[in-house]
Design a protein that fits this description.
The two termini are 50 Å apart. The chain is α+β, with helices and mostly antiparallel strands and 889 residues long. Among the domains are: 350-484, Neutral Protease, domain 2, CATH 1.10.390; 496-602, no CATH class. It is built from 23 helices and 28 strands.
Amino acid sequence: MRAPYFAGFTALLLATTAGAQSAPKAEAPIKTAVTADAKAPKGRLSDAAIPKAYRLDFTILPEKDSFSGRNEIDVTLKAPTKSLYMHGRDLKITKAVAMIGGKATSAVFTQVDQTGTARLDFAQTLPAGPATLAFEYTGNLGDSASGLFHVKVGDAWYSWTQFESIDARAAFPSFDEPGFKTPFTVSVTTHPGFVAVSNAPRVAVTNVTGGLEKHQFAPTKPLPTYLVAFDTGPFVHQTGMIPPTPQRPAPMPYGAVATTAQKDKMGYVMAETPRIVSLLENYFGEPFPFPKLDQIGTPIMAGAMENAGADTYGDGIIFLAPGATTRDKQAFGMIVAHELSHQWFGDLVTPAWWDDIWLNESFANWMGYRIGNEWRPELKIGVGALAEGFGTMNTDALEVGRPIHQPIAENGQIDSAFDNITYGKGGQVVAMIAAYLGDEKFKAGVRLHLKRHAYGNATSEQFFESISDAAKDPRVLAALKSFVDQQGVPVVNVRRQSNGIVATQSRYAFLGSTPPPLSWTIPFCVRVGTAKQCSLLDKPATSLAAPASGVIMPNVGGAGYYRFDLAPADWQSLIAASGTLSPGEALATTDSLWAAFRAGKAPAAWLFAEARAVAANPDATASIDGGRRITGLRARGLIPAASLPGYRAVLASIYTPRLAALGFDPAAGVYAKDDPDQQSLRHDLVELVSDEAGDAAVRNTLKTAGEKYFAGNTAALDTGFLGSALTVVAQEGGLPVVKSLIDKALASEDPTFRQTAIGAAASSGHADAATYLLGLDDKRMRSYDRIGLIFGVVGNPDTRDLGTDWILANYEKLLAGGNGIFLTSRLPQALATQCGADRADLIDAKVGALIRKADVGVLGYERTLESIRHCGVLRQAKSAEIAAALAVK
């Protein structure tokens, strides 16, 4: 699974049900009464019954609010039993029996907690040995990307599934855990002429009673429940064959599945998927592990999901129109490579339990950037991995947190494992260890792990063993475990001494924070002048020989998951050189400088000096990183109103000359022949210069082009400037324009325009527009759209408090409705733009008890509160410095 990382409004679009669309019939949703059972497991099931195979038979008419199913599960009973625990959530079970030797024993199915643990009580004791559990039932088709869900696109309804982490139980009675892997035989009955896709190839379509058609699929390879998929509707299904590779001698069928609204944008994913598959086969040294692959789009998915042979993505990720931006292509390459790498690492070999899911996601995150970079080197996708890793350090440095490898005892803790610690930190730690070992040794360990556990399950320890056995270097285990098994960010303080340098490690802490001390085994690479050396730092202080002079770069390539600090003179030298550093080193410098500032060790003036120096870096991501971070000061309320003119003047002095040197014409296609990184830089500079620096000339140019585009002249505006232009149009036009913009957005099935227009409307900064949008009740509004409005409103400093107060008043409603992994643990992030202990106390007084009682997103919420309090400490300590640095001279 992957949620978008690449910067912008899309990365914040999660999923909620507030204000979501309705199906034509107002059918009452099935809500199963929960009968408490103190003996029921709160997390992992016992081994009393082991599933061996599933046969799932569904009737799905996507326009309905409910579906029906027949389900058979072959199990082995460990001992004689009259009851057992399994899973099923909000299912109306009309029949439940156990079949043994042709004899049926009736059973009663009872849901015993809100997460979907259930008890199956038999009319008489069943003997140990094989049995078949059979069920007939109905369930809900939801309207957010969770369980079995449906969406109306144009005049037609479609349905999809999203089962990770524990939402398969909302679609069929099951043993819904990753450790239970079995074959699944799926059939779907639906309207004639509809397309149905699942994990395995379709083997038959037959006419059945009621004028419907039944699609039958071949049995799958052994899978856990969370990787099962079946999608139904009037889809467009393009197909082709991926040519043979050295690892796979025969061609492999593949396809793309889209709603009719996206049928003209399927060319890119069809053209590029074969190349990414072949690169992954080459890395793993094994053929694609399943008999076919479909790449499936849905309009309300915030990220993507690695269902075996049937990956699902948000429409905007894979359905790219001609003229797609560099950022769009970067996201495509990284996310598609991430999901397809899971076909081996996660689907072929699956974690035994959710506490090892980090290994799936951390590895796939690293592979997404690695293979994405190999797929299209000119897009510089790999730089994004470092940016994501450094961004994660601010979460990892909090006192409230978790290690990458976190014990999970209860179902409510599972979704917390799918956060930026797993993706950003885990991915960079994997990259750091791979770099230390060398590509060939690390790859050998990965291949050994897959061979040992193919079509089965494995633990973190088993992965560590494979890496160690292949590398024949036990020290790597100490380094890996020191980062995986404890939270926190190391900071390496580098100081010159008579014969070189001394590197002292400690735990990074924000100003006012006092986390307990920790130590790591750090793969550390430093360059002094042109002399580079690497060492494992496993002591509090380590002395290294180094030249007496030269700029010190304490994180060569930026690959290390640590921060660094320097003496003032060495900081000044490194800042001055930041425009000439490699992209990763420039990002590491910016991050560590800001970390020193937030720890109270670096003055605010250095931040602006470094932003000015690094702006000359030729890499687009590195050159604007300092400016992006400066805008965060304004977003969090650390730029007082009196300093706003100075803030705009400083940003204008840094970035307007760069934009002028590149040139700026907003019309479509003007810069189509430019280098992709240069295109991306121009897009980012326009956003900074127009929205943050407030340059009148650039804003007027954008406004004119945006109005022409809005009136139907799409040639007037390149896609890369769409967000900036529509934001200016909304800011200048106020409520009347916001109303028109949101109306046009909700009428559109173009995911880029829809999401961008909603973001622009929400971030207008006008209180009356924000109030209108938050209260909007429009049947065209989807779950995906509503959360975009919320984050857009709180993301603008002028409507931040208004939006926060609205969230607090509606938090219970936002949590309701089975939103799944894309919202529940992440909703507290919408409150994170607040600053100060008083605001944290207010938030906690209003929603703290609710969140803790629901036991949903508690970790994310506690992190948010701590971050808000740290912001207040920083504001009190540094506001005068910031104001002085921004004083207009």
